[in-house]
Design goal:
alpha+beta; OB fold (Dihydrolipoamide Acetyltransferase, E2P); globular; 9 helices; 3 domains
């Protein structure tokens, strides 16, 4: 007998929803065979097998929410080529042994990773396959003490046992873990323990006003996590007015809702609007669109705007930074990866096009076309939606003009472009001539970018649009 444990799904991915179970009890499975189709916050992907043998028990069902370290399958007749020793796989939370504070190793400090979006290249990657071992024991070996997060010691000398995800959640809602009683083995604190403590704190302070910290903790706990700074409003019973039905939000829609709430709540948005004359750009697009099509691309206005944004972000890098509020520092990136919002049946996703500054318009047209297609067919990988430093969103195909795009944290800027229209413009000879004018809306984070900075950035883009040939064929 052996157990298949859900491996780590990627950085900052703590759970996923099971969309499909691709195998059945009694099936013989092989290495790398797809077992589950799951949906994380950033992608839909298959979970490959790291064991071989006959499935005797499936422990999850479609619609379940699963976490790394959770038991997925029980398998018999395991072959000699299992992917990794059980001791290297994450153990379920209840199986983690209590570690004495003095025995715990120092926890490495991970580099801060950007939150990407809330969102369109390679096959889905779930976890790196470890080196094969001759046999896998029937049960997972205990996790080594060095792999367990070192529990900090409170003033009374008592250790706090909680996973990194639970500690992060407690920090986000402003709750001290020293005040939480753990319900797990050895007093281990779960996320539900933190939520329960937050609810009790709010209940105790509600009649006397309470503190902002308590309100924040209760609001976040009631919503299920994240930096939600409000108490969700109780809805009326709509059935009293007529027939109703409910549909559960997909994980992607829940992620979009959480990220947009965080963005709107934490970031002071300023939106600047201008129109740009794209008459010459459209002529250039018509000139090269067949070349792009022959290469497998689709030469749209967005391709040109991407190229211009890359140059603008190098000329004025402030619009591509991230703000670290804990250290009071700005993080400048030495790369140019730009997210592009893509409308899909599942909702909005924002894959990142990497090294835009190093590619010409034909290369970009091919990559953007392929990325958008993967987004619409749910074939994005986890890495596809990471690393963006700025976002472009285009609603022109839906006949939208000016609008107020919402920033995708931890970015500080997003450019929205609308539908271009032929407009009479008075030229330098005071004669009217038709020009193709495109509305643009730049939202920026006023904690970092002042209005004048945003205006200069917009002016740079407008000037570049007036001379598209200077940038179109670079890279």
């Amino acid at each position: 007998m052996a157990e298949f444990i859900l491996p780590e799904l990627g950085e900052d991915v703590d759970e996923a929803d099971v969309l499909k179970v691709l195998v059945a009890e009694g099936d013989t499975i092989t290495l790398e065979q797809a077992l589950l189709e799951i949906e994380t916050e950033k992608a839909t992907l298959d979970v490959p097998s790291s064991v071989v043998g006959v499935i005797t028990k499936i422990h999850v069902s479609e619609g379940d929410t699963i976490k790394p370290g959770q038991l997925i399958l029980t398998v018999s007749e395991v072959g000699a080529a299992a992917a990794a020793p059980a001791s290297e796989a994450p153990a379920p939370e209840a199986a983690v042994p209590e570690a004495a504070p003095e025995a715990a190793a120092t926890e490495p400090v991970a580099e801060a990773a950007p939150i990407e979006a809330e969102s369109p290249v390679a096959e889905p990657v779930v976890a790196e396959e470890a080196e094969a071992t001759p046999e896998v024991e029937a049960t997972p070996a205990p996790v080594e003490t060095s792999a367990v997060e070192p529990p900090p010691v409170v003033a009374e000398g008592q250790a706090i046992f909680a996973s990194p995800a639970v500690r992060k959640f407690a920090r986000e809602i402003g709750l001290d873990l020293a005040a939480v009683s753990g319900s797990g083995p050895g007093g281990r604190i779960s996320e539900e323990d933190v939520k329960q403590q937050a609810r009790q704190l709010m209940a105790g302070l509600g009649s006397s006003g309470g503190t902002s910290e308590a309100t924040t903790a209760s609001g976040a706990a009631a919503s299920g996590g994240g930096s939600v700074l409000y108490e969700p409003r109780e809805l009326p019973d709509f059935s009293q007015f007529g027939a109703v039905h409910r549909e559960k939000l997909s994980r992607l829609r829940r992620t979009v809702a959480r990220n947009m709430t965080q963005s709107w709540t934490e970031i002071p948005h300023v939106t600047l609007q201008r129109s740009a004359d794209i008459t010459e750009m459209e002529a250039l697009r018509q000139r090269y669109k067949d070349d792009a099509k022959a290469a497998g691309g689709n030469l749209t206005i967005s391709v040109f705007i991407l190229k211009i944004l890359a140059a603008a972000l190098k000329a004025q890098p402030l619009l591509g930074v991230s703000l670290d509020m804990e250290t009071h520092e700005l993080i400048y990136k030495d790369y140019v990866h730009i997210g592009v919002a893509v409308d899909t049946e599942r909702g909005l996703v924002v894959p990142a096009i990497r090294d835009v500054d190093e590619k010409n318009i034909i290369d970009l047209s091919v990559e953007l076309n392929e990325m958008a297609e993967r987004a619409r067919t749910n074939k994005l990988t986890l890495d596809d939606s990471r690393g963006g430093m700025f976002t472009l969103t285009n609603l022109g195909s839906l006949s939208t003009g000016y609008f107020s795009p919402i920033i995708n944290p931890p970015e500080v800027g997003v450019l929205g472009v609308g539908r271009a229209q032929w407009t009479p413009v008075l030229d330098e000879n005071k004669e009217w001539e038709p020009r193709l004018m495109m509305p643009m809306s730049l939202s920026h984070d006023h904690r970092v970018v002042d209005g004048a900075d945003g205006a200069r950035f917009m002016q740079w883009i407008v000037d570049a649009i007036d001379n598209p040939m200077l940038l179109a064929l670079e890279g």
